[in-house]
Structures are given as structure tokens and as C-alpha cells.
Write a structure and sequence with these properties.
- Chains A, B: InterPro entries: ArsR-like_HTH (IPR011991), HTH_ArsR_DNA-bd_dom (IPR001845), WH-like_DNA-bd_sf (IPR036388), WH_DNA-bd_sf (IPR036390).
- Chains A, B: This is ArsR/SmtB family transcription factor.
- The structure is a homodimer.
- By secondary structure, chain A is mainly alpha-helical.
- Chain A has helices at residues 4-16, 19-30, 35-39, 46-58, 80-88, 92-113; strands at residues 33-34, 62-67, 70-75.
- In chain A, strands 1-3-2 form a 3-stranded antiparallel beta sheet.
- In chain A, β2 (62-67) and β3 (70-75) form a beta hairpin.
- The longest helix of chain A is centred in the last third of the chain and has 22 residues, at 92-113.
- Chain A starts with a helix and ends in an 8-residue tail after the last helix.
- Residues 109-121 of chain A have low confidence and may be disordered.
- The A-B interface holds A 2-3, 6, 9-10, 13-14, 16-19, 22, 25, 29, 32, 63, 65, 67-68, 74-78, 80-81, 83-84, 86-88, 90-91, 93-94, 96-98, 100-101, 104, 107-108 and B 2-3, 6, 9-10, 13-14, 16-19, 22, 25, 29, 32, 63, 65, 74-78, 80-81, 83-84, 86-88, 90-91, 93-94, 96-98, 100-101, 104, 107-108, 111, 117, 120.
- The structure holds a DNA duplex.
DNA sequence: ATGTAACTTAACCATATGGTTAATGAACAA
DNA sequence: TTGTTCATTAACCATATGGTTAAGTTACAT
């Protein structure tokens, strides 16, 4: 029972950390797709694509509606909300980061001027 | 080279898909920390924490300033921008997801009522 | 000069991830 | 019935991940 919220974030961010899965979500944003249709654009076996879909499902980003032998996958974007909010919190630090980085680079510059122990192995 | 942008997203989302690393970023948002300071709150070895920091660095979310034997880590939130924009694109689908889900659940309801699946439009 | 503190690298381990092929099952078509 | 299609499970493989301890490197303190 570590943290329900945190595990949700783990699952969502992990699901998004793969180009195949992001592309699948892009396709699902247009309209629902069967597993085969979802898999078709990718140079991998149906089994591999199916595993990706399961990862998306585990993150709650995809819902599956079974009709006969075909599984129709629907996008459920709601779990992204938490991730989006998490990241949005850091928007304020982008500019601060720029300032920090400037300071940092100036410091490195200064260090580079010094002849002392700035040598690399 | 697959796609520069895509690999950046891979790295950022992967870096964020771990509670330890997210906590580290939270701490770095307050102020820069040395590696030891960053590692201190966690029940793991310094080596393990150091690996997490390297993942954050690989994603560009942390910059390191070496001063003597201590490494000061700075937050650089900028790489989050791409991820945030990616997710923001799906905000519009949250409500659509709700509608779809309703339809989906109603369909499942209907299917549950029917004795043998034979209803296609 | 010696010791200690801050980190990294190296080696190792268990489990997870991303892929494969082969076999299976269930639904549809003939 | 027979065959084909949609998708899964099973078994396997290579590599990545997240952790460990031990050993090394470099800077600082005494």
C-alpha cells in the first residue's frame, strides 16, 4: 500500500515512455481500433503489439470492448490528468532553470579559466 | 536516428515513471542538492541513488556542477515541456473519454442482457 | 603523510521489458 | 464440417532496470 496515486503515476508515465505506445494512443485518439488495426502500422508481431496494449490498459489509458472475436480498444485519457498536473507543477521552474543554468555555465566558464585541477582523466 | 524528439520523450517519461526520481525532482525544485543530500531521504545505497540521478541526467532533467569532490545537482525542468505539451494534447479527450466510456458500459450492459451475442449494427 | 569523505566504477543478482515463434481457443464463413 | 481470422497464452531469449557489496579515485582535513 505504498501510494495509490503514486503507482498510478508510475503506470501512466511508464506507458507513455515508449514511441509505439504513444503512436497507438495517437491512433486511438482518432477513433477506436481493434487490436489488429492497432498493431498494423508497426513492424512487430501481433503478440508484441498486444503486450503494448496491455501496458496501456494497465495504466488505465485503454479500455477494451470484446465483441465476438475482435477486441475494440477505446482511449481513456483520464489517467493522464494526474501526470499532466504533476508536470504542470514544474512549469514555473522552466524559467528559473534557465537562470540557474546561466549561473551554472558561468561558473563552469570561470572554472575553465583556472589552470588548476580542471583537467579530465 | 529514429527521432530526436521522440527519444527525448522516451527519456523524460521514463525518468518520471519512478517514485524515487519524482521525489528527487521535488527536492531539487526547492534548491540544488549534492548527490549525498539527494540520496539521504531514501532507504537505498548511495550507489543506487546515484544511478537514479544518472537517469534524470540522461533525460536532461538534472544538471551537475562538480565542485571539488561534491557534485551539486540542479533541476532543469525544460525537458518536461515536450512531455507536458504531449499530454496537454489529450486534455480534450478526457470528456470524450467519459462519453465513450458511457457508451461502452451501456453496450456491455446490453450484451449482458442478451443470452447469446448476435447483435451487430 | 595519513585518514576520511564524496562519488564513481565494477561486478553481480533478480526481476522486468520488449521482442520472437509455436500452440491454443473461440468466432465467423464456406 | 472444414478452414480461416482475431487474439490470447506459453515458452523462450536478449537486454534493461533497480538494487546490492566491494574496490577505486579524488579532494579535503589533520
Amino acid at each position: 500500500m505504498v501510494n495509490e496515486q503514486s503507482e498510478q503515476l508510475d503506470a501512466v508515465f511508464h506507458a507513455l515512455a515508449d514511441p509505439t505506445r504513444r503512436a497507438m494512443l495517437r491512433n486511438l485518439a482518432r477513433e477506436p481500433h481493434s487490436v489488429s488495426d492497432l498493431a498494423a502500422p508497426f513492424a512487430m508481431s501481433l503478440v508484441a503489439a498486444s503486450k503494448h496494449i496491455r501496458v496501456l490498459e494497465r495504466a488505465g489509458l485503454v479500455r477494451r470492448q470484446i465483441t465476438g472475436r475482435t477486441h475494440i480498444c477505446h482511449l481513456d485519457a483520464r489517467p493522464m490528468h494526474g501526470g499532466l498536473e504533476w508536470m504542470r507543477h514544474y512549469e514555473q521552474y522552466w524559467h528559473r532553470s534557465l537562470d540557474d543554468l546561466e549561473t551554472l555555465l558561468r561558473a563552469e566558464d570561470a572554472a575553465a579559466q583556472k589552470p588548476a585541477g580542471s583537467d579530465r582523466k
